[in-house]
Amino acid sequence: MLRHKDTIIFSEINSFFATSEKAIEAIFSLICSLTFSDKRFGFAQANNLKFSNRNKLILLLLFPFFDIKTTWQYADSVLYRFLSCGKDVFYRLINDSSIDWRSFAYSLTMSLIRKVDNNSESGTSNPRCLIIDDTDLPKTGRQIELIGKIFSHVTHTSKLGFKGLFMGYHDGKSFFSLDFSLHGEEGKNKSKPYGLTPAQAKKRFSKKRDKSSKGIERTSDYTLSKIDSMIKMIRLAITKGIRFDYVLVDSWFTCFELVKFIVSRRIKCHLIGMIKNG
């Protein structure tokens, strides 16, 4: 079922998911129709691969529909009969820093947006909107790569974790996830950057990556300001072909840099955001 705050919404899914069999058929049909090029996104093409990248990715996309939260649970799921493999098969794929996961995610999302547009009623012209917001991502492991202390504006306390910045696209009816980045907060205490002592920072996991790899691009997001990362995301969305009428943000993101960027776009979009007092 779909939930929107305290309201359960059945009307949107009743006509489409009439029976459990129809739901599974629709999900499989949609996901299997998504295509991608191994060469374009940097997926390994070795001849000795026992399982194709396509099959592994399709299974990963199906995990949420079968309540599979981690690859550890895969062996005990009904999907295991389709591809009998261990968790390392998936880990090797998703930990490959040479793969352009951001472009791959955009490719899938754009395919879904086109499918929804083709199935929509003709003549509808709902306002299209980019929605950007951040959230706390608390963690407990002190040896996670780039882990640090963040300040929660909800609880007004410092927590171990990351700040997650997320951007989605809303066409007036459906919502699509487009992009995200993870950020740290260096803080004002120069002796404890990111809220960690030198000994704690040294114990964090670290990994050497090729300077030209996509993994390096992702880790560089960590030190970017959220304003710079947000503008970078919007610029990429426009480059990828996303067209929108509005960008929606809260008061924290409403600033001169964002206003200047939005009004200078040739697609003639607008900004909706609260202005801070003073």
Protein architecture, described:
The chain is of the alpha/beta class. It folds into 2 domains: 2-94, no CATH class; 123-273, no CATH class. It has 10 helices and 8 strands. It is globular, with a radius of gyration of 21 Å. It starts with a strand and ends in a 5-residue tail after the last strand. The model is unreliable at 1-14 (pLDDT under 50).
Mean pLDDT: 84
How far is the N terminus from the C terminus?
43 Å
Number of domains: 2
Number of H- or I-type helical stretches: 10
Radius of gyration: 21 Å
Helix content: 25-40%
Largest sheet: 6 strands, mixed
Shape field: globular
Q: Detail the poorly predicted runs.
A: 1-14
What does the secondary structure layout of this molecule look like, with pairings?
Layout: E1 2-4, E2 7-9, H1 11-14, H2 20-32, H3 38-41, H4 53-62, H5 87-94, H6 101-119, E3 129-138, E4 148-152, E5 157-170, E6 175-183, H7 198-202, H8 214-220, H9 226-239, E7 246-249, H10 256-263, E8 270-273
Parallel strand pairs: 3-7, 7-8
Antiparallel strand pairs: 1-2, 3-5, 4-5, 5-6
Give a quick summary of the entry.
It is built from ten helices and eight strands. The chain is α/β, with parallel strands linked by helices and 278 residues long.
